[in-house]
Design a protein that fits this description.
globular; about 40% strand; two-stranded antiparallel ribbon; about 160 residues; 7-stranded mixed sheet; alpha+beta
């Protein structure tokens, strides 16, 4: 696929919702694509825009990492990239922007409930898969927790404390 020029920017919940519905609720019983915390003042929605349309979305909420509730953390929710934008680098760009946001907020961790079908994507971004598989009730799809410790820098598969 040829490289497409997209722009990463903060978006509104209203801009995020159609992409969430198309990607995350397709083939599931749920038509709900909003989450607890979507409208909190500390929540940030980051999207990718191409030719005036939002083509990918991610939501970043201040939420403790379950294994270390005392350290500041940011949870990624609603990561969705339209089929036409898969494998263009847009997902990586959203993750990079969200990690930058988490660092600005002083977070130690970034974590998510990742679909099993997307685990390789997260692992390539440096996330570790944690715990047992579970079914997310809203979608009925299998997930795992993934976490990125922002104090650890990963270079060529080697973890180095920052």
């Amino acid at each position: 696929m040829s490289k497409q020029a997209f722009t990463i920017r903060r978006i509104t919940l209203e801009e995020a919702t159609p992409v969430r519905l198309d990607v995350l609720r397709r083939g599931t019983p749920s038509r709900l694509a909003t989450y607890d915390g979507d409208s909190e003042p500390t929540t940030v929605h980051i999207g990718a825009e191409l030719s005036g349309s939002v083509v990918a979305t991610s939501t970043w909420l201040m939420r403790p990492w379950p294994d270390d509730a005392q350290s500041p953390a940011v949870q990624l929710r609603g990561m969705a990239v339209l089929d036409s934008m898969q494998n263009t680098g847009v997902g990586k760009a959203l993750i990079d922007a969200g990690i930058a946001h988490a660092r600005e907020r002083g977070a130690r961790y970034v974590w998510a409930k990742a679909r099993d079908s997307a685990l390789y994507f997260y692992e390539r971004r440096g996330f570790a898969v944690e715990g047992e598989q579970f079914i997310e009730p809203a979608s009925g799809v299998s997930h795992h927790l993934v976490v990125l410790d922002l104090r650890v820098e990963r270079k060529e598969g080697i973890a180095v404390e920052r």
